[in-house]
Amino acid sequence: ANRVKAVRDFEDMNAEGKVVKRTAGDEWLEEGPKTYYPHVCKEVLGTVKAHFVAENEALRLKAVNTFVDREGVSRKVGSEWLWTRFGTYMPSVDETVVEVVEANILGETKAIHVHCVNAFKDRFGVERRPGDVWLVTNKEAETYTPTPNETVLKQIPLLVLNKKQYCILLDPFDAKTKQTQMGVRKLIKGPTKFFLNPMEKLEDGCAKDVHVLMGDEALLLEALEAHTDGEGVTREAGDLWMINGPCEYIPTVEVRVRESRRAMPMHAYEGVYIRDLKTGAVRAQMGPTSYMLQPEEELWEKELPQQVENLLTTSGTVTSHSRKKDRQAGRDKTKVVIYSVPHNSICQIFDYKKKTSRCVAGPDMVCLNPDEEFTVISLSGDKPKVPNRIKTLACFLGPDFMTDNIRVETADHARLELQLSYNWKFEIDPKVPEQCKRVFSVP
Q1: What is the pTM of this model?
Q2: 3-state secondary structure the chain
Q3: How does pLDDT run across 320-330, given as a tens digit for each residue?
């Protein structure tokens, strides 16, 4: 079509053969098919091509002048609207095509969040205010083309929960009041599927698996608010309790799972340190047993001096010539410290809480209580003897053979070096505690 402008007032003939009065400055379209003959009262401004509107497309139109469009709707200058009919569309001189808008295809697994830019009534007859955000699924429309008064924020995938899953929905949308319940948590169990409404989100950002507990497993639970649980027990906020397997468990919105616990099987010379959270007391739980921590208990880590840690990894004895080994792995500090006292030797253990000591003669197994520490023995070594050459946890009782070099200098400066060799042993009864303590007495 030609876009024509009247350069003076005159009478024209339209396509229906009717006489139309033109005023200078008027603009209109001369649409084909036909042969256009120039006229002294007309000026051709340009050629306008028709736009083809395909399936799932629309034209975004904007009014250049105030006029009544071809559907009989009055348009004001600057107003925008959509043309969605399939086929060709020839824009008039009073409107312009802003852009081609593609429709959003909504399926079973995809929805969209739509944001209101200007106040209007949407295609579903709902009044929308600026800033409103709502969900559109394929239940409302199979395709959705946003009008100039709205914009598509993002696409929303379908959330699917199987029968072994659940999720906690934060700030859920109430379909009855059409309002978002801020600060509310909602439990959703599978199997189900749904789309997230605006402002809704999942706790921890994902769905969670149902807790499946075996016979030796349990869950430590904490009450977030006062409530009555499924067994009819009243729980106050902050209460701790456990649920034991075998079972399947889904925590309610009033409950938080603090941790998962498993029974610890222990043999006769194995144990763990346990601290009572109410009293702070620490004890050693020894085997043979399979022990499950109680709600008010936790594992306690026993710290040892680095020197003792090194001796425990080298069978209890180390010399200054010993090569340092890589001990990055270390020991499990929650397990009871175990030391095997060698045959014909003795070690001393000090209880810093009771301020007492006890001696253990080998062969025997030593299990440290929470308040006990090893006495590290420093012995001389080499020839001639050098102090503190040997560090050990157990003192050998003998008999054994020892050699030493002794240097003697007389008054007349005569020097004599003697090599002295002899047998030695501790003459004590390991069964008598008082005699055992004499081994560790320093004169």
Answers
A1: 0.72
A2: CEEEEECCCEEEECCCCCEEEECCCCEEEECCCCCCCCCCCEEEEEECCCEEECCCEEEEEEECCCEECCCCCEECCCCEEEECCCEEECCCCCEEEEEEEECEECCCCEEEEEEECCCEECCCCCEECCCCEEEECCCCCCEECCCCCEEEEEEEECEEECCCEEEEEECCEECCCCEECCCCEEEEECCEEECCCCCCEEHHHCCEECEEECCCEEEEEEECCCEECCCCCEECCCCEEEEECCEEECCCCCEEEEEEEECEEECCCCEEEEEECCCCCEEEEECCEEECCCCCEEECCCCCCHHHHHHHCCCCEEECCCCCCCCCCCCCCCECCEEEECCCEEEEEEECCCCEEEEEECCEEEECCCCEEECCEEEEECCCCEEEEEEECEEECCCEEEEEEEEEECCCCCEEEEEEEEEECCCCCCCCHHHHHHCCCCC
A3: 555 554 444 57
